[in-house]
């Protein structure tokens, strides 16, 4: 991967001039999202953390930038014929929104199992949605067929120089706001965002380290550049960067311009989504939290540096977000499920509940199990879901139950 000496971009598909031209082209039609310091996250990490709130774009993701730049570069004949893409995520939203605003017909091909809410949202931006195939690859292949049959312009989500240049405008704005940045930590799916941002970083007047981040379950660019063969599969929270095959253009640019790629765990992603909501009062999707997850997992690497993190998107299902927040409460000890062995006799529940009352622990839910248990016939298992102030408070409850002679098991999360 890149070193400080490998900063030339002369032979690459996108230049700093391309990114600057893209910014001049799109800046009046997108949100110039803020780049703000986070005092709390800085204290947690030992670095000076600046966050770029791309989740505040109209469609809640940076993908608008590349889509709009591509649309504005089409000639009038191509605009009249229309554009097509294969996407069930942020690229679909960004392309359809700006195509509709510019009067360009758009068609989005999505797999048949795409959640209805995403179909409705995309149609709401004026796109024609075609449901085809059960996988993204099948939807993509069909989109390329329609491109040829109907003369549409295909807009790739990442492997297109026009798209890469548009995405790079994120870094143009970040460095205009905070020229002293000496590291950029950027999520990688197909590689369009980091390719564009790294182009800007290499043109800066001082060295800027560029670190890419991928989910452990989908290390596709990591594999390509490190020549490893880690599996790319699983149900990741960071679905926006769950790309099995990175782009050809983007792989070329990442290899030339990016200093390193790190992998983050699902637990780190969950904790970062929760932290950003609690500390910054901002909603991000799993991919949007990947940069923070990387810094938190590698504090020594970034200690003392001025670090820019892109919150690249905020489109997360509300039920999934609720699960993430509740799981984080459980890991921090503020929610707990205890399994307590009792004798099946009058007063047993009252006696154990008294201990919860004495320790000022709130009981949320109770579940008795008399039949499906390996306890003796006169025994029962009691599951208690409860709320405590913190881990120390939970530990005091466990100690009190132990002192009273109860056998207790804490049900832990993975």
From TrEMBL:
SUPFAM superfamilies: ACT-like (SSF55021), Tryptophan synthase beta subunit-like PLP-dependent enzymes (SSF53686). Coiled coil: none annotated. Residues 337-414 form the ACT domain. InterPro entries: ACT-like_dom_sf (IPR045865), ACT_dom (IPR002912), ACT_ThrD-II-like (IPR044561), Ser/Thr_Dehydratase (IPR050147), Thr_deHydtase_catblc (IPR005789), TrpB-like_PALP (IPR001926), TrpB-like_PALP_sf (IPR036052). Its EC number is 4.3.1.19. The keyword Lyase applies. Its cofactor is pyridoxal 5'-phosphate. Belongs to the serine/threonine dehydratase family. This is L-threonine dehydratase catabolic TdcB. It comes from Sphingomonas jeddahensis.
């Amino acid at each position: 991967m890149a070193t400080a000496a490998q900063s030339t971009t002369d032979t690459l598909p996108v230049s700093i001039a391309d990114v600057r031209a893209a910014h001049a082209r799109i800046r009046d039609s997108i949100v110039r999202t803020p780049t703000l310091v986070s005092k709390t996250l800085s204290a947690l990490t030992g670095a000076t953390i600046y966050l770029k709130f791309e989740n505040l774009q109209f469609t809640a993701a940076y993908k608008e930038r590349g889509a709009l730049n591509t649309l504005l570069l089409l000639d009038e004949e191509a605009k009249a014929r229309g554009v097509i893409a294969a996407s069930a995520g942020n690229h679909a939203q960004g392309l359809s929104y700006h195509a509709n605003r510019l009067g360009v017909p758009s068609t989005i091909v999505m797999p048949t199992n795409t959640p209805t809410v995403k179909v409705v949202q995309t149609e709401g931006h004026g796109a024609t949605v075609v449901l085809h195939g059960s996988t993204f690859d099948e939807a993509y292949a069909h989109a390329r067929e329609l491109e040829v049959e109907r003369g549409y312009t295909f807009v790739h989500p990442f492997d297109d120089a026009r798209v890469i240049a548009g995405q790079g405008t994120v870094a143009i704005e970040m460095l205009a706001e905070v020229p002293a940045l000496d590291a950029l930590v950027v999520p990688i799916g197909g590689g369009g965002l980091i390719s564009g941002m790294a182009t800007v970083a290499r043109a800066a007047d001082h060295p800027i380290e560029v670190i890419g981040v991928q989910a452990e379950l989908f290390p596709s660019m990591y594999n390509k550049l490190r020549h490893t063969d880690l599996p790319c599969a699983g149900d990741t929270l960071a679905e926006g960067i769950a790309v099995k095959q990175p782009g050809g253009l983007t792989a070329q640019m990442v290899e030339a311009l990016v200093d390193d790629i790190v992998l983050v765990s699902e637990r780190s992603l969950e904790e970062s989504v929760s932290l950003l909501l609690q500390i910054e009062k901002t909603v991000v999707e799993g991919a949007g939290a990947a940069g923070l997850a990387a810094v938190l997992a590698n504090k020594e690497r970034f200690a003392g540096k001025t670090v820019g993190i892109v919150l690249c998107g905020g489109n997360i299902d509300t039920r999934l977000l609720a699960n993430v927040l509740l799981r984080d409460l459980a890991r921090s000890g503020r929610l707990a499920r205890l399994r307590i062995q009792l004798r099946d006799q009058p007063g047993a529940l009252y006696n154990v509940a008294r201990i919860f009352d004495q320790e000022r622990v709130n009981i949320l839910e109770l579940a008795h199990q008399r039949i499906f248990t390996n306890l003796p016939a006169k025994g029962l298992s009691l599951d208690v879901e409860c709320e405590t102030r913190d881990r120390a408070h939970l530990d005091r409850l466990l100690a009190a139950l132990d002192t009273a002679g109860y056998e207790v098991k804490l049900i832990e999360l993975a």
